[in-house]
Automatic annotation (TrEMBL):
Protein name: Synaptotagmin-7
Family: Belongs to the synaptotagmin family.
Biased composition (Polar residues): 52-61
Record keywords, A-Z: Calcium, Calmodulin-binding, Cell membrane, Cell projection, Cytoplasmic vesicle, Exocytosis, Lipoprotein, Lysosome, Membrane, Metal-binding, Palmitate, Peroxisome, Phosphoprotein, Repeat, Synapse, Transmembrane, Transmembrane helix
Length: 403
């Protein structure tokens, strides 16, 4: 039976009200279900997205392994060091924005870190007491005897890892060959210009030498650095008694070079200090004193003074010198010299210290030299690194004079 709405009982809800209520109830239920689904999806998708980002940024991912490179430098090679120095935090752009640093300070710290880390022998230098024991290199040669022609054959082949003797950081090596005890008659190789690993491949013949006399001789090889304007600098020597060699066939040897018998051991020592001031772009060299200098005069003494050269790359920039101390093998100088050195040039700077003997009637004699830089011998490098590590402090050290 159909009832008109107006005829419905007063206490019962109308059909329109019930329909609206049903629609609202269904809508709320759908909304709750959809919200739950959305939250679940967001959690799942967010976790998955985060995981994918972490995977891409992880060095252990396949992409990270394929892009990773290992650079191996040859000995003596140089590489621009972009890693932060030990003990310093890595660079961060946010830090640079909040805590700006001066460009001069950055440059000083960069050069200091680079020189401290790139200096040769950084792990072994601490064991040295200031006296350099640098490697003098080695030489390859062959020896043999021809019995039919009574001829001793010596072939000078090559040398490796020779020390630098020139301002340019290289040497001009050649070899002298003796059959000791005869020092009057010698043979020489050609000079190899600017080469620390020279190849000579030159053959020398000692003809008319009876075998009985050959085995009484000592083959002596002396490697020197050729100098056009002054005395040639000895690099090292090798001696081998021929009675200990099988001369029936050519024998090839690799021998380490030893300090020459008239070399640095008898030239004396020099005490000096270095003081580096990065804000003033200067280095102060204080020549303090010397001891046990080699006697260069007939009377068994010397008249020493000290020359200090500032070198940039292979160019002489500035020279200073002390007063002459008359007839003294243990002079006390206590003279300081300041050199202006821009921070950006510090890595290419060398301070060359030469102890001289003053001679009134002839050319002054060289007693010994010291090369101070971040790429010199172990003792010199140690002093240079100590100077960089302790700015504005005078760092003193004894140095053995070299030929």
């Amino acid at each position: 039976m159909y009832l008109h709405p107006e005829a419905a009982p007063s206490g019962a809800p109308s059909r329109d009200v019930l329909l609206v209520s049903a629609i609202i109830t269904v809508s709320l239920s759908v909304t709750i279900v959809l919200c739950g689904i959305c939250q679940w999806c967001q959690r799942k998708l967010g976790k998955r997205y985060k995981t994918s980002l972490e995977t891409v940024g992880t060095p252990d991912s396949s992409r990270g392994r394929s892009e990773k490179k290992t650079i191996k430098l040859p000995a003596g090679g140089k590489a621009a060091n972009t890693a932060p120095a030990p003990g310093q935090p890595p660079h961060d752009e946010s830090d640079r924005k909040t805590e700006p640093r001066s460009s001069v300070s950055d440059l000083v710290n960069s050069l200091t870190s680079e020189m401290l880390m790139l200096s040769p022998g950084s792990e072994d230098d601490e064991a040295h007491d200031g006296i350099s024991r640098e490697n003098l290199g080695r030489i390859q040669f062959s020896v043999g005897y021809n019995f039919q022609e009574s001829t001793l054959t010596v072939k000078i082949m090559k040398a490796q890892e020779l020390p630098a003797k020139d301002f340019s950081g290289t040497s001009d090596p050649f070899v002298k060959i003796y059959l000791l005890p005869d020092k009057k008659h010698k043979l020489e190789t050609k000079v190899k210009r600017k080469n620390l690993n020279p190849h000579w491949n030159e053959t020398f013949l000692f003809e008319g030498f009876p075998y009985e006399k050959v085995v009484q001789r000592v083959l002596y090889l002396q490697v020197l650095d050729y100098d056009r304007f002054s005395r040639n600098d000895p690099i090292g020597e090798v001696s081998i008694p021929l009675n200990k060699v099988d001369l029936t066939q050519m024998q090839t040897f690799w021998k380490d070079l030893k300090p020459c018998s008239d070399g640095s051991g008898s030239r004396g020592e020099l005490l000096l200090s270095l003081c580096y001031n990065p804000s003033a772009n200067s280095i102060v060299v204080n020549i303090i004193k010397a001891r046990n200098l080699k006697a260069m005069d007939i009377g068994g003494t010397s008249d020493p003074y000290v020359k200090v050269w500032l070198m940039y790359k292979d160019k002489r920039v500035e020279k200073k010198k002390t007063v002459v101390m008359k007839r003294c093998l243990n002079p006390v100088f206590n003279e300081s010299f300041a050199f202006d050195i821009p921070t950006e040039r510090l890595r290419e700077t060398t301070i060359v210290i030469t102890v001289m003997d003053k001679d009134r009637l002839s050319r002054n004699d060289v007693i010994g030299k010291i090369y101070l830089s971040w790429k010199s011998g172990p003792g010199e490098v140690k002093h240079w690194k100590d100077m960089i590590a302790r700015p504005r402090q005078a760092v003193a050290q004894w140095h053995q004079l070299k030929a």
